[in-house]
Amino acid sequence: MKATVDWTGNVSFKATSGTGHSVQMDGPPNDGGQNLGPRPMEMLLMGVGGCSSYDVVTILEKSRQDVTACHTELEAERVDAVPAIFTKIHLHFVVTGRNLKENLVKRAVSLSAEKYCSASILMEKAGVEITHSYEIRAAE
């Protein structure tokens, strides 16, 4: 896996993945940024959410669950010092579908947390407390 990061002026950077997808990262206006994109630490948090959400959806699909949506809310706490590392991250999954079985949703969230989500497992190994919750909604 490869990626590049190019400075685009002030405190703004363009990150490009090895597959050719780009995202603009920027700092807040009080640091010389123009708020053109997420902060690098926000990218880390979004990466954890994307990695875990991918796991939950694919595990449920393999379990033959009729998932119509998966919305993941992330909330993180950081140290109020430099470096301002994460101390806690909570992921709340809102899984919508038809006739979803709670035991399979719970299993998918657990498997992601304990076995498959490389991003959240890496954060845990670095000392970040990661917690998960979920709710199930019926598709209309």
Chart the SSEs and their pairings.
Blueprint: E1 3-9, E2 12-17, E3 22-25, H1 40-62, E4 66-78, E5 86-98, H2 102-116, H3 118-125, E6 129-138
Parallel strand pairs: 5-6
Antiparallel strand pairs: 1-2, 2-3, 4-5
Helix pairs in contact: 1-2
Q: How do you describe this structure in short?
A:
Helix content is 33%, strand content 38%. It is α+β, with helices and mostly antiparallel strands and 140 residues long. It is elongated and about 50 Å long.
Commentary on this structure:
This protein has 140 residues and is an alpha+beta fold. It folds into 2 domains: 1-38; 40-138, K homology (KH) domain (GMP Synthetase, Chain A, domain 3, 2-Layer Sandwich). Helix content is 33%, strand content 38%. The chain is built from 3 helices and 6 strands; from the N terminus they run βββαββααβ. It has helices at residues 40-62, 102-116, 118-125, and strands at residues 3-9, 12-17, 22-25, 66-78, 86-98, 129-138. A 3-stranded antiparallel beta sheet has the order 1-2-3, with no helix packed on it. A 3-stranded mixed beta sheet has the order 4-5-6. The longest helix has 23 residues, at 40-62. It is elongated, with a radius of gyration of 17 Å. 19% of the residues are buried. The model has no long low-confidence stretch (mean pLDDT 96).
Supply the key terms.
single chain, 140 residues, alpha+beta, GMP Synthetase, Chain A, domain 3, 2 domains, 3-stranded antiparallel β-sheet, 3-stranded mixed β-sheet, elongated, OsmC/Ohrsf, KH_dom-like_a/b
